[in-house]
UniProtKB/TrEMBL annotation:
This is L,D-peptidoglycan transpeptidase YkuD (ErfK/YbiS/YcfS/YnhG family). It comes from the Bacteria.
Length: 172
């Protein structure tokens, strides 16, 4: 998957799913997406409201809703995710579906695990999750239909990754 940010300081992106077909990569889906409110960074820190630029593995998933058929290990726990949100907020459904982006986190752990191997100051808890229509604290969001497709398609045996950043950095 590739997430192309419009500009280094923009919260607007395009998420594109590529799948390997024989010896070539084929674009199989795309969705409007959002990233950090203040754009992208190559030096992410806790609460900077920027998404980290890089290539990250995708190994674990979960959400407040039951597993829609995820091929990644899925942790359903409405209390763990909902505790991060006020249910009366416009963002009450953000964590219906979540795929952990392996930035400063332990793999094979629930997405809501707050262990930070590189230290708390480097941030963490960066996920692909259900879109709410605007920028995030550092996560990447796609529409619910996109999240369901990703959960059903991303195969841990194929070692899925997300390549993410502003278009200028990704194309240079």
């Amino acid at each position: 998957m590739v997430v192309y940010g419009e500009r280094w300081d923009s919260p607007d992106s395009l998420a594109v799913l590529y799948q390997r077909r024989s010896s070539t990569w084929e674009r199989t889906a795309s969705w409007p997406a959002h990233n950090g409110r203040l754009g992208w960074t190559t030096d992410h820190h806790m609460d900077d409201e920027r998404s980290p630029v890089g290539v990250f593995t995708l190994t674990d998933a979960g959400g407040t809703l039951e597993d829609p058929g995820s091929r990644l290990e899925y942790w359903q726990d409405d209390n763990a995710y909902a505790a991060m949100l006020n249910p009366d907020e416009a963002h009450a459904h953000d964590f219906d579906y979540v795929i952990a982006i392996d930035y400063n986190r332990l793999k094979s752990a629930p997405p809501f695990d707050w262990s930070r191997p590189d230290g708390v100051e480097k941030g963490g808890g960066i996920w692909l999750h259900t879109d709410h229509g605007d920028g995030t604290s550092a996560c990447v969001t796609v529409p619910e239909t996109g999240m369901k497709i990703l959960l059903r398609v991303l195969d841990p045996a194929q070692h899925p990754v997300v390549v993410m950043g502003d278009r200028e950095r990704l194309e240079s």
